Amino acid sequence: MSPKTPARTPKPVRAALPKTGAKPGAKDATRRRTRGRPPADAPDLRARLLDAALACYVRQGIAATSLRDIANEAGVTPAMLHYYFGDKVQLQRAVTEARVLPALDPLQARLQATGGEVGDLVLAFVAGIGEVVAAHPWLPSLWVREVLSDGGALRETLFDSIGPRVPVMLAGRFADAQVRGALNPDLDPRLLMVSLVGLTLFPAAGAPIWRRLFDAGDLDYAALQRHVLALLGRGLELDR
């Protein structure tokens, strides 16, 4: 028998380092530093984050909503929200500017395009609110929670942005009509504006309650609009 060839001792295998000269673990550290940054194929992520924040605001209120709540709603990490918006206050501001205020643009445009007749202005407001609610069903409940309630997070937004655009402007046009003798002199133009909001946004916000209470599932906003105009017609001494 031929003698056996002595087995060679294998040389130790050394882990190859990246050609860049980076040390082991550098890739993981880079990944940790970039956590939360959007991938290149997600250009619409910012809009999705805004929608997720709005959904949380409507469901549980702005003050009670954390960045983690919004991140869970959107299916991202809180770091992603920090990357896009910074902190909770800046995110709330972004939602207001990109979602809440634009929702009222069609109403403002309709009122600005309407003549000075009181009946036309009332009809434009009632119909305009109907269009806004149909396009943005979340608005009435958000209005009640965040504007009318004490400590509401959007109350200052009403004074700074929403108020001058719609209610203050419309109350001024009612006052002009009253000076011309086209509006019942016993009415206060400012309270007329308050009454219009109460007859439109409040019923829309409370729809789940009064529909169940009166077994009124068949009543939609078109029916509410007809009711409001009929209710106001005689009180405003309109021809409609």
Characterise this structure.
The protein has two domains: 42-101, Arc Repressor Mutant, subunit A (Orthogonal Bundle), CATH 1.10.10.60; 104-235, Tetracycline Repressor, domain 2, CATH 1.10.357. It has 13 helices and no strands. It is mainly alpha-helical and 240 residues long. The protein is elongated.
Topology:
Elements (H helix, E strand, L loop, with lengths): L25 H8 L11 H16 L6 H8 L3 H8 L2 H16 L1 H8 L5 H18 L3 H10 L6 H11 L1 H13 L9 H17 L1 H7 L7 H15 L5
Helix pairs in contact: 2-3, 2-5, 4-5, 6-7, 7-11, 7-13, 8-11, 10-11, 11-13
Keywords:
mainly alpha, 13 helices, Tetracycline Repressor, domain 2, Arc Repressor Mutant, subunit A, 240 residues, 65% helix
- State the major sheet: none
Helix/strand/pairing class, anyone?
mainly alpha
User: Helical amount among residues, as a percent range?
Assistant: 55-70%
**Which radius of gyration do the C-alpha atoms yield?**
30 Å
Described by the principal axes of the CA atoms, the overall outline is elongated
Order of helices and strands: HHHHHHHHHHHHH
By CATH, the topology of the largest domain is Tetracycline Repressor, domain 2
Beta-strand segment tally: 0
Distance between the termini: 121 Å
CATH-level-4 superfamily name of the largest domain: Tetracycline Repressor, domain 2
- CATH domain class name of the largest domain: Mainly Alpha
- Mean of all residue-level pLDDT scores: 84
Q: Which range does the strand content fall in?
A: under 5%
> Uncertain spans, ≥5 residues at pLDDT below 50?
12-36
Count of structural domains: 2
